[in-house]
Protein: Concanavalin A-like lectin/glucanase
Organism: Mollisia scopiformis
Amino acid sequence: MRLLAPVLFGAAMVQAKSSAPKNTVLCGQYDTHWSANQSYTFNTNEWGDDGSGAQCISVNNATTDFNATWSWSDNPTLVHSFPNIKLQSDLLPIELSNLSHLNISASWSMNPSSSSVENLDTIDAAANVVVDMFLDTDPTTANSTTLPKYEVMIWIAAYGGKKPIGFSSSIKNPPTHSLNGTIYTLYSGANNNGQFVYSWLAPSNVTTFDRDISPLLHYLWQHKLISESNYLGVVQFGTETFHASSNVTFSAQDFNISVAAGQPLVDSRAAGGALPNLVLLLLPLAFFFTFTCS
Ligand SMILES: *[C@@H]1O[C@H](CO)[C@@H](O)[C@H](O)[C@H]1NC(C)=O
Ligand SMILES: *[C@@H]1O[C@H](CO)[C@@H](O)[C@H](O)[C@H]1NC(C)=O
Ligand SMILES: *[C@@H]1O[C@H](CO)[C@@H](O)[C@H](O)[C@H]1NC(C)=O
Ligand SMILES: *[C@@H]1O[C@H](CO)[C@@H](O)[C@H](O)[C@H]1NC(C)=O
Ligand SMILES: *[C@@H]1O[C@H](CO)[C@@H](O)[C@H](O)[C@H]1NC(C)=O
Ligand SMILES: *[C@@H]1O[C@H](CO)[C@@H](O)[C@H](O)[C@H]1NC(C)=O
Ligand SMILES: *[C@@H]1O[C@H](CO)[C@@H](O)[C@H](O)[C@H]1NC(C)=O
Ligand SMILES: *[C@@H]1O[C@H](CO)[C@@H](O)[C@H](O)[C@H]1NC(C)=O
Ligand SMILES: *[C@@H]1O[C@H](CO)[C@@H](O)[C@H](O)[C@H]1NC(C)=O
Ligand SMILES: *[C@@H]1O[C@H](CO)[C@@H](O)[C@H](O)[C@H]1NC(C)=O
C-alpha cells in the first residue's frame, strides 16, 4: 500500500496537468530535480522513512516554488524526511574567512492538506522549517551532509514542540545574535551521526525570510566555537518532518540565495549578543576528545 499510493498520486498529477505540465512530482526516497537555470536542486530526502507514511514534492519547473505533502504515523521523535531546495554554486565550498555574504530569501506556509482538518495540532503535526548548512575544514568533505564535522541550522519555525539539539530552557544566558531586529539564540550538541550541531533558534515563527545570514556563521569563528578555516559546503532550505496523523502540506515560494566571496562584511563580535557561556565553549572540546579517543 505504501509503495502503491505515491505511484497513483503521481499518475493522477500527470493526467490532471497533461495540457500544461509545469510541475514535476517526485515521490521516491532520494529523488532530485534540477531547477531550470541549474542554480538549485529540489530533493525529497526521505532519509528516515520508517514505512509509516509517504511524501511527495511538487516542483514548479520555472520558479523556485515547491510543495511537500507528507504524513508519518510512527516514531514521532525522529526525523523522517527533509524535503528541501539546495543551492548549487561554483562558489561552494567556500572558506568562512572568504564569505562576504549569504543572502537568503523565502516565504512559506505549513497547513493540513485537507481543508476539513482544523489545524496542525488536530493531527499532532511535528516539524520545523530550517536553513541547514554543513561545514568542514576539508573542502571535499564539506560537500556532503553526512561526512562534515559541523552542521549549522537556523530554525525559523517549529511545530509540535520541536526544539534544536542541545536546547534547554534552563541554560542561563545562551548566546544570542540579532539579524535585523530578530534575536536568534544559539544551542549546540551532537547528532546521532556524530556531527556537532549549532542551531540558531528564532523567537517566533518567521514565515517570510530575507536576510544576510552570514553573521550567524561568522559569529561561530569570531567567538572561537569553530575555526575560520572551515568551508561551507552545503546550503539547504526545507522542513524536517517528524509526525502527522494525516497529510501536511509545506508550501515554499520565492526561494533565492545570493552568495559572494570576499572579506566578511560583519564583525559579529561587535554586533551585540552575550558572550558564549562555558558550557557551549567546552562542549565542542568534550566532543572532540570523545571522538578522537574512542
Ligand atoms: C517540467 O518537468 C517535467 C519533468 O522533467 C517535464 O516532463 C515537463 O514537460 C516540464 N514542464 C515544463 C513546462 O517545462
Ligand atoms: C498524502 O500524501 C501522500 C504523499 O504526498 C500521497 O501519496 C497521498 O495520496 C496523500 N493522501 C491523501 C489522502 O491525500
Ligand atoms: C503548491 O500548492 C499551492 C496551493 O495548493 C498551489 O497553488 C501551487 O501551485 C503549488 N505549487 C506547486 C509547485 O506544486
Ligand atoms: C558537490 O556534490 C554535488 C552532488 O551532491 C555535485 O553535484 C557537485 O558537483 C559537488 N561539488 C563539488 C565542488 O565537488
Ligand atoms: C509556531 O506555531 C505553532 C503553531 O501555531 C506554535 O505551536 C509554536 O509555538 C510556534 N513557535 C514559536 C517559536 O512561536
Ligand atoms: C529589516 O527591518 C526593517 C524594519 O523592520 C525592514 O524595513 C527591512 O525590510 C528589513 N530588511 C530585510 C533585509 O529584511
Ligand atoms: C545582501 O544583504 C546585505 C545586507 O542586507 C545587503 O547589504 C546586500 O546588498 C545584499 N546583497 C545582495 C547581492 O543581495
Ligand atoms: C535573487 O537574488 C539576486 C541577488 O540579490 C537578484 O539579482 C535576483 O534578482 C534575485 N532573483 C529573484 C527571482 O528574486
Ligand atoms: C535562477 O532562477 C531563480 C528562480 O527564478 C532565481 O531566483 C535565481 O536568481 C536564478 N539564478 C541565476 C544564477 O540566474
Ligand atoms: C575567495 O573565493 C574566490 C571565489 O571562489 C576565490 O577566487 C578566491 O581565491 C578566494 N580567496 C581566498 C583568500 O581564498
Notes: Residues 1-19, 271-294 have pLDDT under 50 and may be disordered.
